[in-house]
Design brief:
Elements: H1 3-27, H2 47-61, H3 76-90, H4 101-116, H5 123-126, H6 136-150, H7 157-176, E1 197-201, E2 209-215, H8 217-224, E3 236-246, E4 252-265, E5 276-282, E6 287-288, H9 296-304
Antiparallel strand pairs: 1-2, 2-3, 3-4, 4-5, 5-6
Helix pairs in contact: 4-6
The structure holds heme C (HEC) (2 copies).
Residues 56-57, 59-61, 83, 86-87, 90-91, 110-111, 114-115, 120-122, 125, 132, 134, 302, 305 line the site of one heme C.
């Protein structure tokens, strides 16, 4: 290469680097505003629980965001600002006590689940903020606190009686049912799930319920043929939950039937909810969960999102 050509390449390279440098400096001034509005109804819990949540979640899920200098350097800052905006929208610990108690429990359960799934805190965040990682020991603290809030009492005779009554009514009512309850997205209760095969029982940490997951024929066939990611159209899962009862000897058994949930695979029909139609029918009369609110399925999808690389399904079929 002639000397002058080499020289002009060098000049171009220098020019490019300087332009990048100037851009880098300029973008430092383009900043979305992150403010910390007043904290009105802060999350309350025993100190060891509160500390974990504050350390691991508050930067994105509270009005007490504490940015470090390296969070403020662009273009990182744009991403951080985005996380905070979205994070506060779905869950804000600074507004915690303004939620009804039942919602607080629900959100706490969802939070612990998100941590178990490894979805929260966001990996991109803990890579830099290593102090925000939730250790296995932290998780035990959180689980214990959660179960202390939701645990069912031993030998609950009222619940046991309710179970007997409910079961009889249930069995009698089944064949006579003509109008099946239907969710706003058009999914009707499917009584037949009781004849399907059991895919698994949930041993996951739970909210005082015992759960069994059934799969229809299409699901069972897919398992045999190892076609489960994605699951084929026509797959249906039913997840059934009962109260968890404990007798005086400490044995755990199923109590009253609580609800059944369905996921129906049809990637066209349910494209807007990741290819799955969601439905939940709650006791005592199999009332559709969502009465009058077709958006309810978003709640289902959101909580199933940690499994997005697994076609949004948690259950790993028991190997036959
Ligand atoms: C770096 C920011 C960040 C941190 C730290 C963080 N989250 Fe999140 N979180 C988000 C964002 C963004 C969303 C909403 C978008 C999504 O679901 O990916 C979210 C969503 C959630 C949701 C709702 C899921 C849904 O969509 O309904 C829960 C629950 C949650 N986070 C719990 C936690 C808990 C508990 C912690 C602490 C252990 C935590 N997050 C830490 C950013 C964060
Ligand atoms: C709080 C988080 C959360 C929400 C909200 C949620 N799910 Fe799930 N779902 C789970 C978890 C965790 C499992 C795995 C089984 C278990 O632990 O019970 C599961 C499993 C299921 C299964 C069995 C198939 C599978 O993925 O393993 C069905 C069916 C189901 N859910 C339906 C629904 C429907 C319908 C809704 C909304 C009305 C819903 N879920 C909302 C967390 C959630």
């Amino acid at each position: 290469m002639p000397a002058e050509a080499k020289h002009s390449m060098k000049t171009k390279l220098l020019l490019a680097i300087s332009i990048l440098g100037v851009c880098f400096i300029l973008i430092q001034f383009v900043r979305p505003n992150i403010d910390n509005p007043p904290v009105k109804a802060d999350f309350e819990a025993p100190a060891e629980v509160k500390n974990i949540i504050t350390r691991a979640c508050y930067d994105c899920h509270s009005n007490q965001t504490n940015l470090r200098w390296y969070d403020k350097v662009q273009p990182v800052y744009w991403k951080v600002a985005h996380h905070i905006k979205d994070g506060r929208k779905v869950l804000n610990f600074s507004d915690w006590k303004s939620m009804p108690i039942a919602d607080q429990k629900g959100k706490l359960w969802e939070s612990v689940n998100q941590i178990i799934q490894g979805a929260m805190p966001l990996n991109s965040y803990t890579m830099v903020h290593t102090e925000a990682k939730v250790s296995p020991a932290d998780l035990v603290v959180l689980k214990n606190y959660l179960s202390s809030m939701v645990h069912s009492k031993p030998a609950d005779t009222a619940k046991t009686n309710a179970l007997d009554k409910q079961y009889k009514k249930w069995q009698n009512a089944q064949p006579a049912q003509t109008h099946l309850p239907t969710e706003p997205n058009g999914i009707a209760y499917i009584p037949d799930y009781k004849n399907w095969q059991v895919l698994s029982t949930s041993e996951r940490f739970d909210n005082g319920t015992m759960r069994v997951i059934f799969g229809n024929d299409v699901a069972i066939k897919a398992v045999k043929e190892h076609h489960i990611n994605p699951w084929p159209n026509g797959t249906i899962f039913a997840k059934v939950a009962w109260d968890q009862l404990q007798d005086t000897a400490g044995n755990v058994k199923t109590g009253a039937f609580k609800q059944v949930e369905f996921m129906i695979k049809d990637d066209q029909k349910y494209a807007s909810t990741k290819g799955w139609g969601f439905a939940r029918f709650k006791t005592p009369k199999m009332v559709p969960y969502a009465a009058g609110n077709a958006l309810f399925a978003n709640e289902c999808v959101n909580c199933h999102r940690p499994m997005r690389n697994n076609d949004f399904v948690f259950t790993m079929p028991v190997k036959h």
